[in-house]
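TA notes, week 10

Several of you asked for a full example with nothing omitted. So below is the full record: structure tokens for the whole chain, then the designed sequence directly under it. When grading your own attempts, check the secondary structure regions first.
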């Protein structure tokens, strides 16, 4: 793994993400209020919390990558930022020296307005405002960096088409965009 080589130490990754959750849902995960989470995500949320609890005091770096589901739900950027701060504080309460990497979401295709499955407005809120909130947190917290994938993608869209960056015509990255995510995160961590 490149992170092990770059950091010069052994890196062990544990994934506690749950696709489909927004930052409000993740508050319920951390509070173990699973009944407040949509039923189709409850088991995954409980499994994620098991991973978090087992390793929260031992975690050196936590990655927080939220936003697209919040945007589709029209959550105001200020509420999103408050939720992210609560997540940061949760991990900092467990380990005061934990490093935090925030990852802004890539934009949602403006060609698709409604979710095919649920009819939700996918562009309910400007996801660029979420990226701005995350980058602002770099000034508020020590030992925190933001990988601004939103603006990285925005610069690519000056030369690329949406279809070059997304796998499903909504907001899920194709292989190329996944590499962009990795490069953006590595650049944020290692310069």
């Amino acid at each position: 793994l490149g992170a092990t080589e770059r950091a010069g130490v052994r890196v062990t990754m544990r994934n506690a993400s749950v696709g489909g959750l927004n930052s409000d849902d993740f508050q319920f995960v951390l509070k173990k209020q699973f009944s407040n989470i949509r039923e189709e995500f409850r088991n995954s949320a409980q499994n994620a919390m098991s991973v978090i609890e087992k390793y929260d005091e031992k975690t050196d770096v936590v990655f927080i990558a939220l936003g697209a589901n919040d945007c589709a739900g029209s959550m105001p950027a200020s509420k999103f930022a408050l939720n992210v701060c609560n997540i940061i504080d949760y991990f900092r309460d467990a380990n005061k020296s934990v490093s935090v990497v925030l990852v802004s979401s890539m934009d949602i295709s403006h060609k698709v307005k409604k979710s095919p499955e649920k009819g939700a407005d996918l562009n309910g809120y400007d996801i660029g405002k979420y990226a701005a909130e995350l980058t602002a947190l770099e000034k508020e917290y020590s030992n925190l960096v933001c990988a601004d994938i939103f603006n990285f993608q925005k610069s690519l869209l000056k030369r690329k088409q949406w279809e070059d960056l997304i796998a499903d015509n909504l907001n899920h990255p194709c292989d190329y965009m996944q590499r962009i995510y990795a490069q953006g995160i590595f650049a944020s961590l290692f310069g």
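The radius of gyration is 16 Å. Use that as a sanity check on your answer.
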